[in-house]
Amino acid sequence: MATTYKFDAAGATQVIAESAVSGTLHMHYNLTYGQQDVIVSDTTGEVLTSTLVDLLRLFPDKYKESEILKDYILAIKMIMGVWIDQTRDIPELADPYDCPSTYLNRLARMINLDLAFGDNVTVKDQRNQITEATEWYKLKGTYHAMQLIAASTGMTIEIHDMWTTNYSTFVKVDWWVGNEGEYPPGLSLAYYKTPHFTVDAILDKVYGGTGSGDPARLCDADILETLYNAIEKVRPVNTVPHYEITLSPVTYEDKAVYTTAVQVKATITDSWIYSWLHFDATPAVKSDDGEVFDDSDTSFFADITKWKIGNGNEGVTPDHSWTSLASAVASGSGNTYVVYADRVVVTATIPSGTALTDVTECGLFLNDGTTMAAVATFPRISKPIGLELKVVFTIYR
User: Fold this and answer.
1) Between the CA atoms of 256, 257, 258 and 261, what dihedral angle is there, to the nearest 10 degrees?
2) Which of 55, 42, 28, 39 minimizes the C-alpha distance to 6?
3) Is the Cα torsion angle 131, 137, 141, 143 positive or negative in sign?
4) How far is it, in rounded angstroms, from Cα 190 to Cα 99?
5) How many helices (H) and strands (E) does the chain have?
6) pLDDT tens for residues 159-181?
7) Where do the domains of the chain lie?
8) Are strands 13-19 and 2-7 parallel, antiparallel or unpaired?
């Protein structure tokens, strides 16, 4: 049973027809479409629109006074009107920009594309996946294809080859090609390229944050699953991807707090030793009050060997007076550093064997394990076992 409602000028509704007729009508002719009515199923509640068509004019005049025929035509034109409304926009279904979002997956399947889904994938991202499908089909099996499909899901990745001499210790190398007998800079002839490569997801997008039930986050299981699925579609065959994620706090040696576009807030602490006090002179140079200036400016950085990460201070701006994290849940050592003319970059690596859930703070510590040199707070990050997290602090002079 279906009920047809008509809207008058005042917005009131009037039942104009009820029908239990169903079936298929096979006719070929040109019709002039009239106004639209709304049909509501009395059994399912489904709401449809129906373009009214004049079917009675197709019959000889001698039959037009038949009440049985009129009732039948009323029901049939309701059904046909629904068909017309449902098929009118078919041409738009072929355009990923005009296609209703509910039909995007069907459109993708027409070109053998599996759309990425998830809380972090927007409708715009899905439309981009379809429009860019042809391009990455051409590139499928290459690193560029992985970068392209990751970008279509709203993520940024970096890819590195893994070279080794013994298949137990690997060196990450940017994609490199050379002549026979040539090797990437810094590697000897003993190294060889393996089928292993790293996929480093850069945490440069905030998800959620709309309310208490949707906290701001940089990484979680859904986000990682989207990345895994995207890479698996296009990665080269007979290769082994290793996944990493990278967080990049940035600050300066002025004890002010600096905030990135994704709400990563960082500062040095009062325990930081300013690098410009070091002259690297030999023999020792001292000030009148005994301050030694000739220590290598790397000596302090070399002492920042440990890290701690926790789930406290969510949404809190750090301060240079802090001496510890609010709630450390994991710690480790093995930080690395690189000194540039205008900055030092210290990297803390949380190993793949450490699972993290909703961590929001990270600190760099000296070798004594208690003196904190720099600290950052950030939206939530979760990672499972098997995934490495790198926290790359950049401190400008």
Assistant:
1) -160
2) 39
3) negative
4) 55
5) 7, 19
6) 999 999 999 889 999 888 888 88
7) 2-88, 94-245, 248-396
8) antiparallel
